[in-house]
Each structure stands twice: as C-alpha cells, then as structure tokens.
Amino acid sequence: MIHKNTLVLTPFTHAHNVDAVRIWNSASHTDYTINEHFLCYNAIPATGEVIEGRLAIRDREAVGFVWACAITNEPPSKLGWVSAIAVHPSAQRQGIGSILLTWAEDWLKEKGCKRIRIGGNLRPFLPGLPYAMRDNGVFFTKRGYESPWGQPYEYDVARSLKDYRPVYSKPADVDLSPMQSGEEHLLLDFLHSEYPGRWEFEAREFVRNGGRAADFLLLRLHGQVQGFCRLTLLDSERPIERFYPQRLPPPWGQSGPLGLSKVIRGQGLGGYLIDAVAVHMQSLGVDGCIIDWTSLVDFYGKFGFKIYNQYISLSKMIEKN
Questions:
Q1: pTM: predicted TM-score of the whole model, two decimal places
Q2: Contact 217/176 with Cβ under 8 angstroms?
C-alpha cells in the first residue's frame, strides 16, 4: 500500500514534459502515444482558457500526472475537462490515479464548473476514453462518470486516398477552393452565422495564431461562401500527431470540421463537399486521411471511410461544496 504522505503533487511545468510523455506512453495503448511537440501544443491555453496540472512524484520519481482545463470568460463555462490523466504502470492500483483525479475535480469546482468531461477539451489529447482501453473505464465509472444516453461513443474514421476516385460531379455554380490570405473574415462571418460556438471559436483561434489560410477550404455557391472544411497537414498550425495517424500510410492528413449553410442543406452538397475535400487532399499528396470525432459513421462509409478509432464519452455532474 502507498500512503498519501509518501506522494507529492507538484505544479506541472514545461520542465516536466519529458516525464509526462514517458508516463503517458507507458500507460497508454500503443495506438495513442504522444510526443513533446504534441504535448507542447496542447499546453498552450486558448483565449479565456486556464490549464493547470499536477505531477505525482514518489521517491523522487515522477509516476503520474493530470491536466485540467476550464474556461474563465464571462460568463464562465459550466463545463470543465480532465484533459489528460495517466499513471505509470509500475505505480498503478496504488491510489495515485484517484489522488490526481480528486485534485483535478476540486480545482474545477473552484473554477465554477458544474460538469466534468474526460477528454474533449479545446486542445484534446483524446475525445474520450479509447475503446481499446475500455477496461480503464471502471476507474471512472466508480467515481461517478457516465456515458450520455443514446450516444455513448465518438469515432474517428479513416481511409487511404491513394486510389480515391471522385463520387460526385461538380455542381453548376459551385466552387471549392483554399481560402486565400485576407479572406479570413469571410470564414469567420460564415461560422458566426451558421455555426456559432466551438467551430467559430476554434477558427478565430486559428486566425489569431497565424494559421495558414489554405488550411481552410471554402465552398462558394454563386460566389457566396456557403460551406467550409478545415484541413490538418504535416506542416499545419496544429500537429497532425494529435489525430494518432500512425497506423495509416503516410503522408497523413486530417479533415474536419466541415459544414454547409442552412439554406443549401438537403441538396446533396454535403456529399459533394466530402468528396471534393478528399480529391483536394489527394492532390496535395495525402494518403492516410482521418476524419476525426464524429458519430456519422454510416454517412462517411459511403466514401470508403471506416472506423479507425472509437472513444467512450464520459462525464459527471458536480456541485461546489
């Protein structure tokens, strides 16, 4: 048995990155390993976000860590996240994970959060608990975490684009092309009108961080922006490694989110958008392509995308004491 007084929780700093990568990769399934580039990107808070972590040290050795995230904008978000938690296999089943999770929950309560989600934050390590690590779900369910009724899973779907063939002919008066530098306001205006919320927020962060304009594709009908898709490539602002593409043939790419305006939905242009994005990525030399964090498995299956990763959504309600 390990006693709490033999364990020290110290504030997480950049100096602990190497330890965190070692702990995560030792504790995780081999499909979900990370590197320092991935970790450093996720450590950058978004606008209005606070990230705090603790490193667990036992006998002068780092054996676990946890990161928690909260949004402090006015009004502050009621949702908080445990974005990462891992304990080295040599130190598991000794209460360390519980100590780390309790610290994260207490910190999130102090930030005013009423609900905590495992993963799925603004710069997520994972959308949820990987199904390949589902045995670890007991750790969370014993502590009150549950999956949402009706949609307990999220998926990444993927396929090789090497032999991709177009499914749709180009509709009249429709153009899909990379956004040009200086057109960012068109994207942001479209998202503010059609997809206010996380997608708009992430696009504003992309622009604020100097992301490459061509990593967004704009679908125009009669010259007006009516749809979009975001891409992640090997040299994009966000690291491709965060989508765990290592089981796919390189070069890798990711697409999503994507969407159309309300006025043109139901006209088959959603299928055309997915098809045209795949053709565009193929033209850039992408082979292994991921569409991440979706529940539309059957829809994407029409384009040859198959389930690549499956995640269990877990969250719980909390109340500040």
A1: 0.93
A2: yes
